[in-house]
Predict the 3D structure of the following.
Amino acid sequence: MRVSGAKNAVLPLMAASLLADAPVEIVGAPRLRDIATFGKLLSLMGASVERIDAGEDGREAVRIDPREIRKAEAPYDLVKTMRASVLVLGPLVARYGRARISLPGGCAIGARPIDQHLKGLELLGAKTTLSEGYVGVEAARLSGATVYFDMKTVTGTENLMMAATLAKGTTVLKNAAQEPEVCCLAQALRAMGADIEGDGTDEIVVRGVASLRGGRHDVIADRIEASTLLLAGAITGGDVTAEGADPSAMDAVLQKLSESGAEIAASPGLVRVRREGRVRSVNVETSPYPGFPTDVQAQFMAYMCLGDGFSIVRETIFENRFMHAAELRRMGAKIDISGNTAAVKGVPFLSGAPLMATDLRASASLVLAGLAAKGTTEVLRIYHLDRGYEELESKLSSLGAEIARVKE
Ligand code: EPU
C-alpha cells in the first residue's frame, strides 16, 4: 500500500507559506479534512489556495499564494475544529507584525495549552494580550533570543522556528522537538532562504533573514498512517508492505512490532510486516520522538487486546488519550485504566459491535479492532478519520479488508 504525505508535515508547511513573498507549492499533500480546513483559514486571510496537478506521476500539490494577505486572524469557528490553526501565529507576527487567533480550548485528548508558543514569542519581543477568547500578538520586528521549552512541543517548536526566520538576530530553541515533521519544515524553510541549523536535535539555531522566497517542497511520508496500515496487517495476521514509508522514522513502532512476534523487512522507502499465530503481549510507553509516538498508542492498544498475556500501555504525552479503551471493552477487550497507565489482558478474540469514534487516532484503533474481530463492527462519527487518513477504507479494502463507508 502506498503511504500518503504526512498531515502533520503539510500543516506547518502551509503555515510557512505566510512567511514567503511568492507562491509556495506543497507536493504530495493528501486530500484530508484538516488540510482543507487549513486552506480555508489561509483563504479567509486573503491567500489564494488551490490544488494543482504536480506533474509527477499524477501527484497533486497544494499551491498557496500569500501575496494578498490582508487579515492576520484565525477565527473561533476554524480553531475550534482544528487546533493546528495555532501554527499561523508565529508566521503572521514575523511577517505582518501582528496576529489575532482564537485561543484553542481543550480537546478530546487533553487540555493542550499553548503557553510555550506564547512564552517563546514574548521572548522574541512580542507583546501578547488576551481578550474575548482571542490571543493578540504584536511586534514591530521580532528579535532573536534563547527560548527554552518546558516540554517537547511539536507545533510550539515549529511556530517559534518559523517566527525566528524573519527575526533580527539569532534565536536558539532549546529542548526543541525532534520529530521528522519539524525537520521537513526546517528543510522547506531553508529552501525558501532561511538560515536554520540543528533540526532533528534538541537545539535549533535560527539566524534571521530579511525575507523568504516561495518554492516547491515535497512532503515526507506519513509515518503514523504507515504504522496504522502495518498494524492493520499485524492485528489480522496478514502481510502488509507500506510503500514510500521511511523506516528510519519508525524505529520505535517497528521494534515493538518485532517484539510482538511480527517479522519486519525494511529498506529505504519500503517496510513490510508479516505476522502469524498469537500476538505476543509487549509493553509500550509513549514519548516524544524518537520514542513511541502517542499518535500510534490507540492503534497499538487495539493490537495488544489480542495478546497472549499482559501489556502495559503508558501514555505520557496527553492526559486523556484512552477514550478508545471504553469502546474496545465493548468488543470484549480486558483493559484496566489507572491514571496514564492501561493494563491490557489479551483475549483470544474480540467481537464486533457498534462503536463511537472520539478522536482521529482512537477512530483508527477501533477500525483495526473491527478488522480483527469476529462479526461486524460499526464505527460511528468517522468524520474524525477523514481529518487525518486519506481513503482509509479503500486502502484497507485493497488489502483484503471487508470495510465500507455507510451513511450514519
Ligand atoms: N503543551 C503544553 N504547552 C504548550 C504546548 C504543549 O503544555 O504550549 C503540552 C501538551 O498539552 C502535551 C505536550 O505538551 O501534553 C505535547 O504537545 P505538543 O505541543 O507536542 O502537541 P501538538 O504540537 O499540539 C502535535 C501533533 C499531534 C501529536 C502531538 C504529539 C500536529 C499538527 N499535531 O500536536 O497530532 O499528537 O504533536 O506528537 O503536528 C494527530 O495527528 O492525531 C495529533 C493529535
